[in-house]
Amino acid sequence: MAIDPVCKMEVQEAKAAATSEYKGKKYYFCAVGCKKAFDQNPEKYLVEKIN
Fold first, then answer.
1. For the chain, what is the radius of gyration of the CA atoms?
2. pLDDT (tens digit, 0 to 9) for every residue of the chain, 51 residues total?
3. pTM of the prediction?
C-alpha cells in the first residue's frame, strides 16, 4: 500500500486513480484531484509528509 501524499489516504498501487513521478520516485493518488494538486506544488506535500 502507498500513501497519497496529498490527502494521506492509503492507496493500492494497482488501483490508484493516478500516479506521478517526482525526483525519481513514483507517487500514487486516490483521485485525479489529488494528483493535480501534487503536480502544481510537490514540495508542499512532501515537506508536510516529512514533518
1. 10
2. 999 999 999 999 999 999 999 999 999 999 999 999 999 999 999 974 444
3. 0.87
